[in-house]
Every structure is written in C-alpha cells, then in structure tokens.
Design brief:
Elements: E1 2-5, H1 23-36, E2 40-43, E3 45-46, E4 52-53, H2 56-69, E5 73-76, H3 86-90, E6 99-102, E7 107-109, E8 112-114, H4 118-130, E9 134-139, H5 143-154, E10 161-166, H6 178-184, E11 191-196, H7 201-210, E12 214-217, E13 224-226, E14 229-230, H8 234-247, H9 255-262
Parallel strand pairs: 1-2, 1-12, 2-5, 5-6, 6-9, 9-10, 10-11, 11-12
Antiparallel strand pairs: 3-4, 7-8, 13-14
Helix pairs in contact: 1-2, 1-8
C-alpha cells in the first residue's frame, strides 16, 4: 500500500508551487496519484486563502471531490496543525471517513509541541470507533506503540494499522534500526507503513519495502525530489516509491486490495 500525504498542515504555495488547494486541484492530484500507484489519500485541507483549516465543509468538499474522481481510501487527519484546538481537530470526523490518523501521545515538533495527552487521545479514539472509522496510529516515537496498544484493549474490534513517521525534529530519528525495532513491537496481525521526513525519506522507504511494510510519501513529508529540485507533483513521488517497490519484488496494492488488508467495510 502506498499512502500519499499530499497537502499537510504546514506547506504554502511559496514552499511548494504545485500544492493542491481547491477541491478541483485535490481531485486532479488524487487521479494522478491513483494512476501512479497510491491506494490511500491522507487529507488535510486549506481555506480559500490557502491557510490550513479543519472546517467540516471544506473537508466534505475535498472528500467528495476525491470520491467522485477515484476509488482511493480517503484518510482524514485528526492532528491538523499544532495550534488547532481539540474541538477543531475532531470536527471533521462527523463526516465518517473510512480512516483517520490518531497520534497516541505528545511529541516535540520542531520548536512546538504536538499536544496529545491521554484523555484527549481516548476521546478521539472513542469518537472514531463510534463512527466506525478505522484509526491509523501515527507513531512519532517508540512509546506511542504502547499507547496505541492500551487504546486497542478498549475496542479490539478493528484492524490495527500503524504509520512510523521518522525524522521529525523532536521525534524518533530515522536510525538504521528504527523500523526493525518498531515493527518488532507490533501485534502479530498488524500492518504498518513508514515515512522518513525530508532527506530521510529514501532510506526509510527502502527499509520499509525490504522489511515487509508499506510506505507513505507526498508533499507533507518530502519537499525535494532530489537535491536542488522541488518535487513536481505528488504523483512523481508516488511513482518513485512504486518503482522502488517493484524493484524489491513488492506488488502495488490497489485501493480495493488495501481495503481488504485494512479490513475496511
């Protein structure tokens, strides 16, 4: 499975001129990513001024545009930006996406803090499960694996899927043994993906593919395609991961195959 983290909460058009913002742009991006090999579209959105927002109707418009154009799994963020309130972060869940990310712990995030105290995480998890949303546990540090395990004890009726986000300043570095260590601590039937931030992306991708995992890529995680050249599109980043997977003997999952792996309805 290849997830495209296409937009993020931090990038601007000044950083990435090809950042999709409008529903029409997001739909066109999704079509291109689907053709390149993506099966999951991790969604953040922007308002009409290009600023990050957790507005429910903006999420609805983007989600509907993707669904009208593709069969991709649409995975909402519940993290938003580090400055968003709990209420804002939780609001789009009412749209009942198939999946949503859930970070089971707090982490330093550059010069800021991505604040996820235990009670907040439990409320998010209970809200997701009440709406039949399958969470993807975003793992920024090793203690979050244990945090996810504690949550799952309360509601063991869904598939467990994790995403290792390595190389965020303040989180777990993209050490050569990081993926092997984290994946060895997961429950037996769990699935996992990994992404390395910035220059860590290619080494992490290679390690994930060789160790049986899945991969996330996209503008949220990777600005430069190569030294000195900003990535031309999310599809270009997806295409590179797909080529690396084929070279490693790994089949590229369609959205339908991904739904089976993730046990989505």
């Amino acid at each position: 499975m290849i997830t495209v983290a296409a937009i993020g909460a931090e990038l601007t058009r000044d950083d990435q001129p090809n950042l999709p913002i409008t529903p029409e742009e997001i739909a066109a991006d999704a079509v291109a990513c689907r053709a390149a090999g993506a099966s999951i579209y991790h969604l953040h959105v922007r308002d009409s001024s290009g600023r990050p927002t957790m507005d429910v109707e903006t999420f609805r418009s983007a989600r509907d545009a993707i669904n009208d154009a593709t069969d991709l799994i649409v995975q909402f963020t519940s993290g938003g930006a580090v400055s968003d309130t709990e209420e804002a972060r939780a609001a789009p869940l009412e749209l009942q996406p198939e999946m949503a990310t859930l970070t089971p712990g707090s982490v330093n995030f550059g010069d800021e803090v991505f604040w996820n105290p235990k009670d907040l995480v439990h409320r998010f998890y209970e809200r997701m499960r009440s709406l039949s949303i399958v969470p993807e546990f975003e793992i920024f540090d090793s203690g979050m694996v244990a945090g996810a395990e504690r949550l799952h004890r309360d509601s063991p009726d869904h598939h467990l899927h994790y995403d290792f986000v390595l190389g965020v300043p303040g989180g777990m570095p993209a050490w050569p043994d990081a993926i092997g260590f984290l994946s060895s601590k997961l429950p037996e039937h769990a699935t996992w993906s990994a992404t390395g931030i910035g220059r860590n992306h290619l080494p992490v991708t290679r390690d994930a593919l060789m160790q049986g995992g899945h991969v996330r890529t996209g503008f949220e995680d990777v600005l430069f395609y190569e030294r000195g050249r900003v990535a031309a599109s999310n599809a270009e980043l997806i295409g590179r991961v797909a080529a690396m997977a084929r070279e490693a003997g790994r089949e590229i999952a369609t959205p339908g195959q991904a739904r089976l792996l993730l046990e989505l309805a």
